[in-house]
């Protein structure tokens, strides 16, 4: 404004109108005053409008060093004007380079080009961040020589915080802080693209809390929300950093595991999740356990898009619940595909036996009296060439229906007995090996002769073999079962009733059976510390079995509270993750040789 006024004054002088005595000078001077006044008003309006959209004005010299800063700079940013003077923007302390670095901006300045809305982030001394937008234009003198830059700046820290909050609400669950359903589907699409390029396998784990409805209904939604927060935190600790975890809603969570090299690796993840969520939680000054059921579906074999995989993982989750809760299950195509697919699965199962793809894992059994391992249970797995290590839930139901279970059963018995002899040859003390028999196996007319032939072939002492038979078999075919058991028991083989308490056998029938032990079902053990009914049933089973001079084995023991309860009621043996997970045969030697483990101190005290 002042420069323009002086320029007009010089032009009037050159025209000889610089003094009041000059002809026409008063008119021209009045004109000059009017123009100057209008320009002043225009400049005031410009600055007023500019101030509405900007917090400060700045100027730089030809070397891009700040020469002045005015306006609300200190108030808006909390930073000092003095520390800017004499420095370029990239020399200021704490200023983080814009996306792509300073190169593009400096090239633009070197070209004397105008720039708009350059976003800058600066870390202050207290660790907080401020965000600003700056715009600038080059300044040239009357001769066209570049003199520097001038421009405006605006603090956008509050707007950035608001935008981040909006973005977070759009992608994250407000209660737990985990990804929401929408964000999960986005992550899944990217993960599938990577898996397709790399020919990799993905796993979707559908996680549903057990007994959450009881907590939510009984203690209220506030306590229920607190439980969900705790469970979300536990899940974050249990999963890998490369996994994607989301809350779908209610008490349902989903985990996307990339680089799922094998079914065994995914099973380990699922077991870790189940064990973590089964830890006691304190609610209103009382400890209780919820646990979770997990269903697993694999990409690409169980589906190639998120909706399909979620549906199949959900199906598998309900199978896990039906199996007693607090566990996991893989989705089985045999339960959800047409007959052609079922035939293909059957063919694969046939090849599994022929190509020696079956595997045995062994879970230790521990004596309450001594705290030492006294036996193992043999558990079958299928090393699928494409899906990795499969759990029994994935293939045993079809094996039962197709009759393949008979061949599987003979394979398990032969290999388990051979392994027992191999352990003894390694110098380990003799201990029992337990094998599960399904209803179809038990009804096999060749069962007894098959057992005798295996014992003779391997040379195993019959007293070191234990057959676990479900309670329902005893109920459905009591007379036939009695005859078969009597024939087997005559050789010295031990027999126990598996999943005891879930059937309807009477004392009158039970006392006539030639059995050695009963095995308390894990569905009762899981809640004995918090459920009075399960505690009462478990106590009654132990007392009843001891009155019939039967050993009592508790399966699914995972916590110290469960172990103490069972010890105090006189349980003889325990089995579960507290003492040892299913492991390969080579690892059993360390279990057999070690002294009583720390957790067993809780159950090995005098009774």
Describe the structure.
The chain has 607 residues and is α/β, with parallel strands linked by helices. The protein folds into four domains: 1-51; 54-171, Beta-Lactamase (2-Layer Sandwich); 173-331, Alpha-Beta Plaits (2-Layer Sandwich); 358-607, TIM Barrel (Alpha-Beta Barrel), CATH 3.20.20. The chain has 22 helices and 22 strands. The strands form four sheets. The chain has an eight-stranded mixed β-barrel with strand order 14-15-17-18-19-20-21-22, surrounded by four helices. β1 and β2 (66-71) form a beta hairpin. α8 (221-238) runs antiparallel to α9 and α12 packs across α13. The chain is elongated, with a radius of gyration of 39 Å. The model is unreliable at 48-52 and 336-340 (pLDDT under 50).
What is the CATH architecture annotation of the largest domain? Alpha-Beta Barrel
Radius of gyration: 39 Å
Amount of beta strand: 15-25%
The secondary-structure class comes to alpha/beta
Mean pLDDT across every amino acid position: 82
Q: How far is it from the N-terminal to the C-terminal residue, by CA?
A: 100 Å
Major sheet: arrangement of strands: 14-15-17-18-19-20-21-22
């Amino acid at each position: 404004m002042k420069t323009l006024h002086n320029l007009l004054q010089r032009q009037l002088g050159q025209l000889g109108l610089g003094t009041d005595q000059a002809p026409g000078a008063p008119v021209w001077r009045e004109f000059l005053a009017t123009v100057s006044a209008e320009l002043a008003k225009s400049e005031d309006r410009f600055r007023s409008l500019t101030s509405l959209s900007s917090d400060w004005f700045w100027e730089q010299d030809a070397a891009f060093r700040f020469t002045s800063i005015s306006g609300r700079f200190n108030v808006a940013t909390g930073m000092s004007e003095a520390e800017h003077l004499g420095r370029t923007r990239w020399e200021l302390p704490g200023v983080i380079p814009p996306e792509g670095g300073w190169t593009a901006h400096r090239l633009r300045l070197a070209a004397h080009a105008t720039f708009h809305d350059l976003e800058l982030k600066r870390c202050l001394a207290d660790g907080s961040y401020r965000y600003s937008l700056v715009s600038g234009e080059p300044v040239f003198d009357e001769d066209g020589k570049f003199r520097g830059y001038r421009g405006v700046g605006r603090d956008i820290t509050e707007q950035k915080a608001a935008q981040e909050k909006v973005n977070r609400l759009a992608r994250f669950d407000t209660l737990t802080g985990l990804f929401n359903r929408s964000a999960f589907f986005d992550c899944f699409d990217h993960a599938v693209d990577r898996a397709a390029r790399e020919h990799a396998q993905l796993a979707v784990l559908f996680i549903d809390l057990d007994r959450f409805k009881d907590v939510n209904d009984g203690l209220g939604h506030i306590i229920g929300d607190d439980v969900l927060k705790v469970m979300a935190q536990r899940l974050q600790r249990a999963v890998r950093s490369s996994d994607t975890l989301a809350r779908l809603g209610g008490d349902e969570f989903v985990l996307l595991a990339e680089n799922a090299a094998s079914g065994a690796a995914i099973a380990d993840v699922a077991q870790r999740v189940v064990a973590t969520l089964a830890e006691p939680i304190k609610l209103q000054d009382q400890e209780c356990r919820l646990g979770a059921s997990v269903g697993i579906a694999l990409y690409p074999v169980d589906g190639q898009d998120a909706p399909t995989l979620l549906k199949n993982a959900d199906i598998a989750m309900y199978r896990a619940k039906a199996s007693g809760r607090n566990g996991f299950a893989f989705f089985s195509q045999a339960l959800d595909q047409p007959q052609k697919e079922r035939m293909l699965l059957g063919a694969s199962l046939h090849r599994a036996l022929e190509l020696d793809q079956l595997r045995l894992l062994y879970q230790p059994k521990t004596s309450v009296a001594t705290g030492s391992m006294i036996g193992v249970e043999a558990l079958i797995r299928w090393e699928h060439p494409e899906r990795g290590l499969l759990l029994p839930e994935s293939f045993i139901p079809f094996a039962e229906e197709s009759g393949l279970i008979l061949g599987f059963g003979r394979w398990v018995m032969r290999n388990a007995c051979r392994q027992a002899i191999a352990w003894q040859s390694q110098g380990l003390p003799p201990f029992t090996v337990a094998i599960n028999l399904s209803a179809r196996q038990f009804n096999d007319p060749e069962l007894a002769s098959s057992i005798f032939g295996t014992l003779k072939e391997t040379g195993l002492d019959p007293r070191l073999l234990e057959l676990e038979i479900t309670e329902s078999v005893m109920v459905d075919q009591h007379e036939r079962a009695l005859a078969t058991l009597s024939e087997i028991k005559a050789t010295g083989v031990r027999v126990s009733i598996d999943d005891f308490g879930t059937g309807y056998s009477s004392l009158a029938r039970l006392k006539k059976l030639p059995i050695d032990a009963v095995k308390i079902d894990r569905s009762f053990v899981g809640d004995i510390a918090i459920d009075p009914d399960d505690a009462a049933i478990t106590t009654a089973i132990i007392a009843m079995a001891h009155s019939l001079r039967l050993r009592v084995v508790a399966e699914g023991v995972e916590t110290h509270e469960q172990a103490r309860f069972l010890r105090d009621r006189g349980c003889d043996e325990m089995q579960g993750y507290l003492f040892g997970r299913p492991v390969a045969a080579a690892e059993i030697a360390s279990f057999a040789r070690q002294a009583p483990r720390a957790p067993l101190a809780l159950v090995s005290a005098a009774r």
